Amino acid sequence: MSAVDWSRVRADFPILSREVHGRPLVYLDSANTGQKPASVIEAVDDFYRRHNANVSRAVHTLGSEATEAYEGARRKLAAFLNVRPDELVLCSGTTFALNLVAYSWALPRLEAGDAIVLTRMEHHANIVPWQLVAERTGAVIKVAEVDGSGQLDLPALYALLTPEVKILAFTHVSNVLGTVNPAREICREARRRGIVTVVDGSQAAPHRALDIAGIGCDFYAITGHKMAGPTGTGALWGRRDLLQSMPPFLGGGEMIREVRFEGTVYNDVPHRFEAGTPNIAGFVGLGAAVEYLTSIGMAAIESREKELLAHATEALSAIDGLRIFGNAPEKAAVISFLVEGAHAHDLATLLDLEGVAVRSGHHCAHPLMHHLGVPATCRASFAFYNTHDEIDTFVAALLKVRRLLA
Ligand code: PMP
């Protein structure tokens, strides 16, 4: 792997040179949303300046350019994820993608007595759609627990996979604990038992080379805004036979082949699930984001973020009274923490005055927070564009605000 000049990479992100409260911005909230390189911003700008038109409708030049740009983005994203473009449904993000599986795959199939298995570390986006479907079908939800280090208790998870279980939905990487779950092994166990697997890849796709085909899951959801792309973009990958067996989720233009009042013939997958005008400019930006990440190399990004995580973990662990939630050996660059005697929101508010952006709250993971016995944590999340100096600034700011709160 050739050495990456990380200071040049950082300079690709215009926002990172701004100040907040008179201090250089230290952005440590990339698990919430990632920052965008100039090439992504310019791709969106260029689309609106030069190519803007609707997709799949007009025969005029701009219409074909817009369609080609949108379908080109699907191809780039598919190559990035190692899947076929015609198995990739473009949508607004993971929340939409998971709801699509819940409503279109699960709702028509589940019956009273069936079970859905989730894990304790799921984001609400991978809990609530299943609850909505369970309420309407009479299916029940079972939960796989995490251990003290924030890893899934795998033998207990596999013991839950009894014959009434139809779906196992789990996150690839936890947005709170950083835990990287062994997705391939989990999917193998589920497949052996005939259980359909749904993987929430929101926190995995931005940080590691993904081989969805190699994971062996049935559905995989990603979100564009966490992987250097625009907000309101994302995708659901699904096995073609499963996608083909699913009724449409939303009806409207683009998802049909022929509409008569007597009945409508739907379009092929993936277009069947893309009703209405999509976020065309957003996907053009996501295509540029995927090219950008690929030009750096996901292996280089993963190892850079590992170094940043190791540095931050060591520095934070040396702070008296600071507790880190989640110490899995396989961990993404996310550190949830609390400092004795200080409320998470107070810490985040005072850190902001120092120019340091961290998130505080429940991180859309109430069941995990209940399990940890805390209402909220602070979370510092890192991306390849962060620096070791920023970690030192963050730690110094944390020590300062702790003194203020004491
Ligand atoms: N799952 C996880 C693990 C997440 O971190 C997030 C975003 N915080 C989501 C789902 C929701 O993704 P989106 O923003 O695309 O709705």
Provide structural commentary.
Helix content is 40%, strand content 17%. With 406 residues, it is an alpha/beta fold. The protein folds into two domains: 6-30 and 297-405, Aspartate Aminotransferase, domain 1 (Alpha-Beta Complex), CATH 3.90.1150; 42-294, Aspartate Aminotransferase, domain 2. The strands form five sheets. The chain has a seven-stranded mixed sheet with strand order 4-10-9-8-7-5-6, sandwiched between helices. Strands 13-14-17-16 form a four-stranded antiparallel sheet, with helices on one face. The N and C termini lie far apart (47 Å). The mean pLDDT is 96.
Query: How far is the first residue's CA from the last residue's CA?
Result: 47 Å
**What's the overall average pLDDT, rounded?**
96
Indicate the overall shape: globular
CATH class of the largest domain: Alpha Beta
Instruction: Output the strand order for the largest sheet.
Output: 4-10-9-8-7-5-6
Q: What structural class should be given to the helix and strand makeup?
A: alpha/beta
- Ligands in the structure? 4'-deoxy-4'-aminopyridoxal-5'-phosphate
Helix content: 25-40%
Number of strands: 17
**Tally of separate helices:** 14
**Rg, nearest Å:** 22 Å
State the CATH superfamily name of the largest domain: Type I PLP-dependent aspartate aminotransferase-like (Major domain)
For the record, the count of structural domains works out to 2
Which key terms come to mind for this protein?
406 residues, alpha/beta, Aspartate Aminotransferase, domain 2, binds 4'-deoxy-4'-aminopyridoxal-5'-phosphate, four-stranded antiparallel β-sheet, Aspartate Aminotransferase, domain 1
